[in-house]
């Protein structure tokens, strides 16, 4: 299944990678220590590692919710 939003392949979003102890690197089973923005052919997207984009708060009129 393909995500509806185009995802940039990077180690920080990979299923295989784990955050390093310094917080500035990713530990990869396949490639070793990698920078978070690096990538390789073993990339597998993990949606739980992605930080959601927060939308600006909007004010709604109560009339919008009436049927």
Give an overview of the whole structure.
This protein is largely without helices or strands and 67 residues long. The chain has a domain at 1-45. Helix content is 0%, strand content 12%. The protein is built from no helices and three strands. The chain has strands spanning 18-19, 26-28, 32-34. The protein has a three-stranded antiparallel sheet, with no helix packed on it. The radius of gyration is 18 Å and the shape is elongated.
Number of DSSP helical runs? 0
Based on CA inertia axes, which overall geometry fits? Answer: elongated
Biggest sheet, open or closed, and with what strands and sense? 3 strands, antiparallel
Q: Which structural class do you get from the secondary structure elements?
A: little secondary structure
- The H-and-E topology, N to C, reads as EEE
Average pLDDT, all residues: 88
Radius of gyration: 18 Å
Helix content: under 10%
Distance between the termini: 36 Å
| Number of E strands | 3
What fraction of residues sit in β-strands? 5-15%
Strand order of the largest sheet: 1-2-3
Unreliable sequence segments: none
Structure in a nutshell:
The chain has no helices and 3 strands.
């Amino acid at each position: 299944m393909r995500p509806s939003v185009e995802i940039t392949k990077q180690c920080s979003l990979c299923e295989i990678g784990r955050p390093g102890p310094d917080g500035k690197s990713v530990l990869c089973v396949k490639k070793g220590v990698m920078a978070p923005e690096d990538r390789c052919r073993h990339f597998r997207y993990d949606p739980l590692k992605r930080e959601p984009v927060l939308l600006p708060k909007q004010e709604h009129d109560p009339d919008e919710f009436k049927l």
